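Lecture 7 notes: from sequence to structure.

We start with a single chain of 204 residues. Read the sequence below before looking at the structure.
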Amino acid sequence: MIIYLLKPSKRAETALLFVLLLLIICSFFRVDYAGAGIIDTSKDSWAVISGYGQSFPGWGQTTQRVETIDLIFRHNHMIFDNIGSGWYQGFHSILLELPISFVVSPDESAMVGLNFLASYTFTADKEWRPYLFGGGGPVYSFANIPGMGAVWNGNYQFGIGLEYDMEKEHNLLLEVRYHHISNAGAKEPNDPLNSCKVLIGITF
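Now the structure, written as tokens:
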């Protein structure tokens, strides 16, 4: 029942993609705001994130259970700092990611991609900082997965994370993501992969 309620419709997918694209475009072109830093890279950071992902047959039009071990290299570029006040005080940033997904079932191969994500981090608590993010990008699949009719695909995703300040040079990251891969009907068959990913990482 839960999986049925979460089944993404084409209209919902289109609306989500539009909103995420609008957020990313606004991030690049809006410069006159509190702490705007489109060109300033002094507060940028890097991260390495890894974890486990699995698609669920019956979630949307997903037919295959695909398991992956994920390795993600991320660049976090802050756009607007010191937004809001109180519990929703935070900063807005753009995340550029290079994800490598090592497929362990039903094939043993890999998928690589490039993600452009918009993110908002809540900074009211200096030690534990939750954040939200979403976006997407292209994915190239080397894996032989039944139902995937193309090697070039697209993905969109959104999730929540928690950054823990270890009071050293590195911070700990914990994330949960919803992740969708399909070729948008460019080739048949086009059985999408709707997955959940649980990840842990460290910042530099």
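Residues 2-203 form a domain with the Porin fold (CATH 2.40.160.20). Keep this in mind for problem set 3.
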